[in-house]
Amino acid sequence: MTQTFYSNGKLLITGEYVVLDGAKAFALPTKFGQNLIVEEATDEHIHWISFDSDGSIWFEDSIPFSSISRKERFDDFASIKNTLIEILHEAFLMNSDFISKGKGYKIKTELTFPKLWGLGTSSTLINNIAQWLQIDAFELLKRSFGGSGYDIACAQNNTGILYQLVDEKPKVEIIDFTPDFINKIFFVYLNKKQNSKAAIASYYNKIGDVHKTIPAINKITKRIVEASHLKDFALALEEHEIVLSNILELPTVKEALFPHFDGVIKSLGAWGGDFVMCISKENPTEYFKEKGFEIVVPYSEMIL
Q1: What are the start-end ranges of the E strands in the chain?
Q2: How do 105-111 and 45-51 pair as beta strands?
Q3: Of 22, 127, 169, 223, which sits most exposed with the smallest number of CB within 10 A?
Q4: d(Cα 90, Cα 87) in Å, to the nearest integer?
Q5: How far is it, in rounded angstroms, from Cα 150 to Cα 152?
């Protein structure tokens, strides 16, 4: 029997970093995501193969059940394998049936976006594994990768969300984000993938008394999701960038890379990599291409 599971990718529009400390964040699921296809085997191994969106194989290995149950660690050259074993070991602790009652598996993952885009290779994997084993994806994330969990909420929902950690538990509010100015919103890839774990560690080294900032971020997020005019939306995004710039002690992405751009540019997720969102009255593709940034995706092609 073959089972197939799918999870949406994600983009964090507001609340980056501070969502970890209880701020309300606005996030959108993408039209891109990841499949997980499970077939039964008979040798008490998981034969794993992962495909990038272009059909190339980016990971392939065979993992004995015993390595999962005892959380075996291989050398540093097997970092992807070690990470996968860690996730599967935590899943095993939550529901051991797939090992104790299983005979073996052939598992295939298929990304529908390039792996380097940073739209949620890990979160879509964790949510797919949780669906397969019928366990709580938020808990699996907490035990393995860590993070706020907004990306899991995007994996599970097909519309915009407001996401908040309340007493360290996820609170998800579905919202209808369909303003008239969607055709003025574009996403630009910065040609490098940001390491989320490293970015979070850097944030915690700099935050100081971030709790004073959270009410301001929450108000800005509310203005952004409720904006009915492009000008109001753009001003709120700019304000958000300034607040986070002060917290992180980093220049905004517009200051650093695009100081002469005629429009608004908003960092998304971990600052310094992956995608940024830009607001422009005219299609900005040529501007960014001239700067060496070839991937510019309109809102309608990116967001569910």
Answers
A1: 2-14, 25-40, 45-51, 57-64, 105-111, 161-166, 169-174, 185-189, 264-267, 275-279, 296-298
A2: parallel
A3: 169
A4: 5
A5: 5
